[in-house]
């Protein structure tokens, strides 16, 4: 794990995630050097300082992109705008719910991302899936070199990630190279669903996952018999739950297991384990729509996989970092042990040899992501060579 801030895991996590999304080390240095003292301040003061420097870098890149546009250099402009959206997104994710600057900053994330991907001709199309009178937004990445209907891996967020984060980290690109399409969504409780439509997280993830499958079945470019599901971090709960109760999924994979999230919350109340975001308890109440801590802990009692995984009868891959600071390895082992009816189950623990040992491999996603992409391609009928 790259530790720019010696005493602040949450800030280091954000910096590492930004690097995995494509941040440049010189820009990281310019943004973070003024923040060393602020990293030791209370959340509210420190995260505002963090926001100012990261937004300033995003604005600088937008201005440089405008110079490129005026010169007709649209691909260069698009690349800079995509990186600017990474910095805006990193800054937005660090702010507490209710910060008045958060909503306009998130709007800037979406605007900058959309323009950046368009100008750079990225293999990325925005889609909207009807859901309960609103919609679930997604990013659709087409498989490369496939004629006819494509296999596809639906990818869902954790507690605090967004579809743009997952897109930038790279799994959709790695899958496209292997002949597998991707649909990265902001499911209820995350991204646009939470911020723009006030759609709270639900423990019965099959509720929204089934609607995604319904939508995919209407597409002539998708092979409905080869739809997989992947989840990262808290998605390590959402994904197995959805695969268990939605039999149309052909396979599942978790990038960081999350077998018993209720237990994780109890441990965090006792100051055990690292938090993923500042303002943590405020954030989880917002995500789940809890009115207070008692209400949140009542909701969290449902977020576990005991008695669920026996229903899964399709191939399933469980991955975990051996030095995960947030979710103990034992929960990955528990998930694997309970997949008793999966015809092809595998537990992959990422070690120091290949990297990706931290939570959902944020310390080094490349090798871990390649392993996952290969496994998915082999399972859904893609290619690995």
From TrEMBL:
Molecular function (Gene Ontology), one example: serine-type peptidase activity
InterPro entries listed in its UniProt record: AB_hydrolase_fold, FrsA_esterase, Peptidase_S9_cat
Name of the protein this chain belongs to: Peptidase S9 prolyl oligopeptidase catalytic domain-containing protein
Taxonomic superkingdom: Bacteria
Positions of the Peptidase S9 prolyl oligopeptidase catalytic domain: 173-382
GO biological process, one term: proteolysis
